[in-house]
Amino acid sequence: xxxxxxxxxGLSRSFGALKATDEVTLDLRPGEIHALIGPxxxxxxxxxxxxxxxxxxxxxxxxxxxxxxxxxxxxxxxxLGLGRTxxxxxxxxxxxxxxxxxxxxxARQGSSFxxxxxxxxxxxxxxxALSLLDRVGLAARAHVIAAELSHGERRQLELAMALALSPRxxxxxxxMAGMGPEGSKAMTxxxxxxxxxxxxxxxxxxxxxxxxxxxxxxxxVYGRIIATGSVEEIRRDPEVRRAYLGDAA
Length: 249
Ligand SMILES: Nc1ncnc2c1ncn2[C@@H]1O[C@H](COP(=O)(O)OP(=O)(O)OP(=O)(O)O)[C@@H](O)[C@H]1O
Hints:
six-stranded mixed beta sheet; 23% strand; globular
């Protein structure tokens, strides 16, 4: 089996007396979508923050492509290829979708040598930005300002901006949140298509999306992974059904 792109081993993190992450071990393999599910407060966001470097663990390690990044911060991990969607608040709402992505492309390329060039005229930013917008299905909305995009379109834009940094993997924390059925369907199709090229660790409450997309699922309950397996294995697992899935299975 190919080496994992990301591996997390024995990761733990407490907040006071609460063990939000309790000896979690999981990996993300090339070309897979690995979904992380669990009830509210199970510790999914804490785990994502430990992986991205926004939080540091009390114990355990995080390896990216075989390299120990446990002591590195968010930007160092991002430079090593760990991609994560931007929060909506980090979009520039008054800039067009295209300009937002061009700025992300510029951040990737390093901007100092073209300091005097007007950004919008710069084909080395514009061309890749247009193709990223096309990749996430937003080409027709390139010139609309971010504030006027729908919620679902803003999430697509965040994905384009994450992709602009040429990540080796994506961490996605609830990409379907706040979307209606149509938006969820469109995002599911987009992630299915991206997932072939780029491994994705996906935290998501929308079980239809998880069952449609995941190659493997890990179930987190009270900070611990109680099961990891294929969609069918997880649907059948009696402990998972008891702890989490109930009727959704
Ligand atoms: N900074 C913090 N300080 C104290 N407690 C925290 C902190 N962050 C998270 N927690 C607690 O850790 C537990 C796990 O929270 P976390 O947000 O990781 O869960 P989650 O699975 O992402 O939940 P949800 O599905 O509701 O987003 C919760 O009990 C939460 O209250």
